[in-house]
Amino acid sequence: MSKHNFTEQTKKAFPWLIMILMSSVTFVGILSELMPSGVLPLMMSDLNISEVQTGNLVGYYAIASAIFAIPLISVTMHFNRKYLLLLLLAGFAISNIIDGLVHNYTIIIILRIIGGICAGVMWPMIAAYGMRLVGVKHHGKAIAVIMAGTTLGISVGMPIMTTIGNDYGWRTEFIGLGIVIIGIALISLFALPSIPGEKLTKSSSPFTLLKIPAVLIVLLLTLLGVIAHYGVYVYITSLVDEIQLVGGVERALLFFGIGSLISVLLAIKYTDKHLRLLTILMFGLLIIAMIIFLTLSKTTIMGYAAFFLWGLSFGPLVTLLQAAVSRQVDTAKDVATSVQSSVFNFSIMMASSAAGMLLGMYSPMSLIYLAIALSIPGIIISFLSKKALS
Predict the structure, then answer these.
(1) Same-domain check for residues 238 and 369
(2) Cross-referenced InterPro entries, in alphabetical order (predicted)?
(3) Which of 233, 300, 342, 372 could be 69's S-S partner, Cβ–Cβ 3.0 to 4.6 Å?
(4) 14 and 158 housed in the same domain
(5) CB-facing half-sphere around the CA of 42: CA atoms within 13 A
(6) 49 exposed, middle or buried (CB, 10 Å; 0-12, 13-18, 19+)?
(7) DSSP notation for 226-269
(8) Statement to judge: residues 78 and 180 lie in one domain
(9) Domain for residue 196, yes or no?
């Protein structure tokens, strides 16, 4: 089948199998970033490093993703999308496997930075790659399916990988993920269509995009939404201890995960037609969940309900914001989503820092007030932004 015929067919019928394969890439991508979080004590003991040094294994990865996303997306715009993705998967696989084999902390940090650079390019490019395989009316659905891998990675993949790490050692966990990534790369080599890159023009440069008011609005919503969510999520264990939830953090993450998965399915179905409404609901549900934490969380059932509603709000966060920014440009969607992705990663860093400062001065409930304070302007801006979220 020719490339032209493939593209025409996929634009008529939604290519579910290809989108699910792309979703597996975001699944292993989020695991590659977060895996050290679940096995911090094991890595501290094995490598003989401090808690701060172990935390840097995630922190440096995120910083590299944020810093390198925009320049590297711009440099690689003309690369064939399929072969660029295969190169990135190779980077993920090599960094994880060697991480599991070496004993030198500095080398591991360097490999984590390499993984972060690959992630900085992968997150924005894979969404744009997927959109080029479907018609305009399916762009939101494509992003939702592809980014569903991140939600599955957080809610399902992380508990599984953490169990493997605790039972068989963190090195087995890292090497195992690397092998899985190689498997995905081999399937992608034969299954993914070859799509040529695009020429980066002055009109599609990051600096030009930042002059578009609708893009700036989406970036502001990204900042508000990510800090509101992650400011609480980073310290979810402290929140669970504070409200004395029966079943602990495992039960909290279960209900959070169920809510996230349901919201991803809703995002897949409705993002293309109801982007603005879903964005308003995302902020609204977060406010409701946080108010329940403040007022009724001592009741076990209401505590579970709050984590479920929070999961409903959290699940489509990436999908909605990437779909919104990609709608503001006709070409070079990779560049647009790279700008949004960089703001997303910087916002996670800001959330972690701000929440850590609040936690040092006040109780974990102060994080709830932070989430509400940021969600209120978020819901107002979303309601007023008909053009940016149309």
Answers:
(1) yes
(2) MFS, MFS_dom, MFS_Efflux_Transporters, MFS_trans_sf
(3) 342
(4) yes
(5) 19
(6) middle
(7) HHHHHHHHTTHHHHHHHHT-TTHHHHHHHHHHHHHHHHHHHHHH
(8) yes
(9) no
* Dihedral sign computed on CA atoms, order 266, 267, 273, 276: positive
How many distinct structural domains can be found in the chain? 2
With a threshold of 0.70, does the pTM exceed it?
yes
Q: Environment class of residue 127 by beta-carbon count within 10 Å: exposed (0-12), middle (13-18) or buried (19+)? A: buried
Q: Residue 271: which residues within 8 A CB-CB, separation 6 or more?
A: 140, 141, 143, 144, 278, 316, 319, 320, 323
Could you count the other beta carbons within 10 Å of the beta carbon of residue 103? 10
